[in-house]
Amino acid sequence: MDFTLTHEQRMMVDTTRRLNEEVLQPILDAHPCHRSLPKAATKEVLQHLAQLGLTAARLPEFAGGPGLSALDYGLMCEQLSPTVAFILLPHETTITRLHHGCSEIQRERWMRELISAERIICTAATEPDTGSDPRGVRARIRRQAGRLVLNGQKMWISNGSVADLVNVTCLDEQGVLVRVIVDRQQSAFEVKEIPMMGLQQCHLSELSFADCCIPFDNLIEGTGDAAKVLTLTWLANRPIIGLSAVSLAQRAFEAAQEYAMTRRQFGREIGKFQLIQQQLADIETEISASRLLCYSALAAIDRGERANGVSAMAKRFAVSACERAIALSMQVHGSMGLSQELGLEQMARDVRMLSIPDGTPEILTLIQGREITSYDAFRA
Ligand SMILES: Cc1cc2nc3c(=O)[nH]c(=O)nc-3n(C[C@H](O)[C@H](O)[C@H](O)COP(=O)(O)OP(=O)(O)OC[C@H]3O[C@@H](n4cnc5c(N)ncnc54)[C@H](O)[C@@H]3O)c2cc1C
Q1: pLDDT single digits (tens) 316-361
Q2: pLDDT digits over 86-128, tens only?
Q3: Which atom of ligand 1 is closest in space to residue 126's alpha carbon?
Q4: Which among 6, 129, 203, 280 would be 20 to 30 A from 163, CA to CA?
Q5: At the fourth CATH level, which superfamily is domain 121-220?
Q6: Do the two domains 7-115 and 121-220 of this chain adopt the same fold?
Q7: Ligand 1 within 6 A of 156 CB?
Q8: To test the ligand 1 pocket, which listed residue (154, 356, 364) has its Cβ within 8 A of the most ligand atoms?
Q9: Domain 226-373 in CATH 3.40.710.10
Q10: Where in the chain are the domains?
């Protein structure tokens, strides 16, 4: 498979890289690196991304998006820092999910402000007792006096504390998994920020809904199968998160390469020692393999092929390759590699965050195993 970039792809990649370096990174740098960004800054980041069409990347033009292929979207995400990618993905993914489920009237109501990032939306599926198995959801809605009443708790929700709208996965009175949009201006619910070890400028939140009243027309009725819509976006999100890991690993590699060329021990640059060269070669090999796996998973999705196995493989391989790349880069740097000043320890904490959402390594292994054997390990 040839992944030589076309002229248009090269332009998209360059524009996104410039936006990240010249506009978005300075916004992040203007705030403390160990605390979640203020809502205004999160919104500003999203609004810049909206100008490149990235907030509605997967929507067709008639729906207000650029109709990017999965590969083009991935190529652009690879240029963003993981923090920016993890601000974008929950918003963009939820917009895509909404597009696939909501009615024309609901689209009119919500889409314009979401695509322009005047308002932020997130998806709340995970609960304290329900993580990898999305069918274990306990949150419930019932109809009462012409309204919906939601009870339940959601955990680890990206952008949860800055979202204006929350796409909540819950059970209806018949026990069917449905989605309902909770609008903060209409409905009261509790939000708590959860401090995390990495990607600390992002928001990860716990949301509590106690007899939360929601207008009836916020129910997403377009599809009864909420789990299927979740899966649709997971498939592309996995290699896209893999590409976030690739961009992190690339930075670790470049730091190691530069250090190896300048740091001198035993009277010469450490890059002249064969063991250091092997460490650099190992990192570069894993980055190249990760990148190609992610691109090929996204290309398979674009060709309409079944991509469950390759998409799972791409994320699992890329994230663990990135962990190894950062560890090796730290090793090349000696004590300096462990210092907070250099930033590799921050990267080691950030990459741990990529490992869990949209499929843990164990879940991804079982998805791949199911493709290989046709045996479903999730159903005993
Ligand atoms: C950065 C980040 C962003 C997130 N964003 C969102 C979001 O926006 N919205 C949202 O709803 N959720 C979000 N999540 C939550 C995430 O989707 C869940 O954490 C994830 O699904 C795993 O669930 P869990 O943490 O409850 O772990 P569990 O599912 O309880 O798993 C615990 C451990 O058991 C393993 N395990 C589980 N089942 C099996 C099995 N069958 N075989 C072998 N091992 C197994 C897992 O791999 C894991 O190691 C986010 C999480 C993170 C870290």
Answers
A1: 999 999 999 999 999 999 999 999 999 999 999 999 999 999 999 9
A2: 999 999 999 999 998 899 999 999 999 999 999 999 999 999 9
A3: 11
A4: 129
A5: Butyryl-CoA Dehydrogenase, subunit A, domain 2 (2.40.110.10)
A6: no
A7: yes
A8: 356
A9: no
A10: 7-115, 121-220, 226-373
Instruction: Quote the ligand 1 centre to 359 CA distance (angstroms).
Output: 7
Calpha distance 269→241 (Å, rounded): 35
- How many angstroms separate the Cα of 317 from the Cα of each of 84, 238, 242, 294, 350? 22, 11, 8, 9, 16
User: Cα separation of 282 and 266, whole Å?
Assistant: 23
**Tokens in use for 62?**
């008639």
pLDDT tens, position by position, 229-279? 667 788 999 999 999 999 999 999 999 999 999 999 999 999 999 999 999
- Give the right CATH number for 7-115 from 3.30.70.100, 1.10.150.650, 1.10.540.10, 1.20.1410.10: 1.10.540.10
CA–CA dist 290, 280 (Å, integer): 15
The β-bridge partners of 122 are: 166
